[in-house]
Write a structure and sequence with these properties.
17 helices; 52% helix; alpha/beta; 7-stranded mixed sheet; 7 strands
Length: 362
C-alpha cells in the first residue's frame, strides 16, 4: 500500500535530479571508455612502431599477432589484422602527442612537423570515437584542415556519417566566407563570431528544383527538410517561423524565415532570392532587421543579423550595398541539385522497365 501512497512534497524534483545525474554518469562512463580505447590503440601502435624500428620487425608480424590475440582472447573484439594496422597508422599520425609520458630513449625516434605538436592535443584525440579518427586519417591529409574538422565535430556533435558529409562538401572552405558588413556594424568579438556562423555557398543538395522555380517553392522545400536545412546552417540555429508576420504602420509584412541563434544570442532573418544579388535587397533586409530589433529583440539580445541567400552574387556589388546600411547583414549563395531536363528525363528508363529487362535474365 505504501508504494501507492501520495509521494512526498518535492518528490518530482528529486526524481528529476536523480535521473539527470544517472544520465550524466552514463555519458561520463561512455566518454571514459572511449578515451581509454583510443589511448590503448595509440600505445599499441607505439609499441609496434618501436619494435619495427629497433628490431626490424616486418609486416608479417601483424597477421600473426591478430591471430594469436583472437585465439587466446576470443571475447575481445577490435584486434583484427586490419585494425591493428590502423593502430600503427594512428600512432604514426600523432606520435608527438603526449598521451602518456614517453621514455627519454623514445623521444626523437619519429620525425614529425613541429606544427603537429601545437595543432593536436591528447584531450581532442581522446574525445573523438575511433571511427571518426579512421575517417579523418583516410580523407583529410592536411593537418590544419583535419584539426578544423576535429574541432567542428566536437563543437557540433557530428556523427561519423555527418562528418563524412561535411568533408565531402568541403565545409572548411565555406565556413566564414559570406560577404558581410559585420566588421563595420558589430563590435569585436561579436563580429568575428557572426562571420564564422555563416558560410558561402550553402549546399541544399537535398532539394531538386527545376528552373524556373519560385522562391516560395524553395522556402517550402527547406521547411519540409528542416532538419537537413538546420544541419547545413550549422550549430546554434533555432527555427522560429516561416513567413513570419510583422505589422508595421498598419501594413502587413512577412519575413521569409526567422531564426534565433543560441550562441550569438540574436535573431537571424533569412531572405531567399532567385537569381543574382541586387543592391535593393540590402535595403529591404535592413528594414526587416530594424523591425525585429524593435518588436522581438530582448534587452539582453545582441543586434539582429540578416542573411540574404541568392543563387549568385557579385562580391563588389554586395560590399557596396552593405556598406550603406545600418544593420549587420551577410550575403551568401546557395546551390541546389539540378533537376533533369524534361526531354532527358522522359528518355530514361523507369524502374519498372529496368526490372522487366532484368527479369528476362536467368
Amino acid at each position: 500500500m505504501s508504494d501507492q501512497a501520495t509521494p512526498p512534497m518535492n518528490y518530482a524534483d528529486l526524481l528529476a535530479d536523480i535521473k539527470q545525474r544517472i544520465r550524466v554518469a552514463q555519458t561520463r562512463a561512455m566518454l571514459s571508455v572511449n578515451a581509454e580505447l583510443i589511448r590503448l590503440y595509440w600505445e599499441l601502435g607505439q609499441m609496434l612502431d618501436a619494435r619495427q624500428r629497433k628490431e626490424g620487425w616486418g609486416a608479417a608480424v601483424i597477421p600473426r599477432l591478430a591471430r594469436d590475440i583472437r585465439n587466446e582472447l576470443p571475447e575481445v573484439k577490435g584486434f583484427s589484422e586490419r585494425n591493428i594496422k590502423r593502430m600503427l597508422a594512428f600512432y604514426r599520425e600523432y606520435a608527438v602527442v603526449e598521451f602518456v609520458p614517453r621514455p627519454v630513449a623514445q623521444i626523437g625516434i619519429t620525425e614529425k612537423a613541429p606544427q603537429a605538436v601545437a595543432l593536436f592535443s591528447s584531450d581532442v584525440l581522446l574525445a573523438l570515437p575511433w571511427g571518426h579518427h579512421l575517417l579523418l586519417i583516410e580523407k583529410v591529409k592536411d593537418a590544419q584542415t583535419r584539426h578544423w574538422y576535429m574541432q567542428a565535430t566536437l563543437a557540433n556533435g557530428w556523427s561519423r556519417n555527418i562528418l563524412q558529409m561535411q568533408i565531402e562538401t568541403a565545409a572548411h572552405t565555406r565556413q566564414g566566407k559570406a560577404t558581410s558588413n559585420f566588421a563595420l556594424r558589430l563590435p569585436p568579438p561579436q563580429s568575428d563570431l557572426a562571420q564564422q556562423a555563416l558560410k558561402d555557398p550553402y549546399l541544399f543538395d537535398f532539394l531538386t528544383l527545376a528552373e524556373p522555380f519560385h522562391e516560395r517553392e524553395l522556402e517550402t522545400g527547406l521547411i519540409v527538410h528542416l532538419e537537413k536545412f538546420l544541419l547545413e546552417l550549422g550549430q546554434g540555429f533555432a527555427f522560429v517561423g516561416r513567413q513570419y508576420h510583422v505589422d508595421v504602420g498598419d501594413q502587413d509584412f512577412y519575413i521569409d524565415m526567422l531564426f534565433y541563434h543560441l550562441h550569438l544570442r540574436c535573431y537571424i532573418v533569412i531572405e531567399l532570392k532567385r537569381g543574382a544579388f541586387k543592391p535593393e535587397y540590402a535595403g529591404k533586409m535592413n528594414f526587416y532587421c530594424s523591425v525585429v530589433d524593435d518588436v522581438l529583440k530582448h534587452s539582453s539580445d545582441t543586434p539582429t543579423i540578416g542573411l540574404i541567400l541568392c543563387q549568385t552574387q557579385n562580391e563588389v556589388i554586395a560590399e557596396y550595398a552593405l556598406r550603406g546600411v545600418d544593420k549587420p547583414i551577410g550575403v551568401s549563395t546557395f546551390e541546389l541539385t539540378r533537376a533533369l531536363p524534361a526531354e532527358l528525363e522522359s528518355s530514361l528508363p523507369s524502374i519498372e522497365q529496368i526490372e522487366r529487362e532484368l527479369g528476362d535474365f536467368p
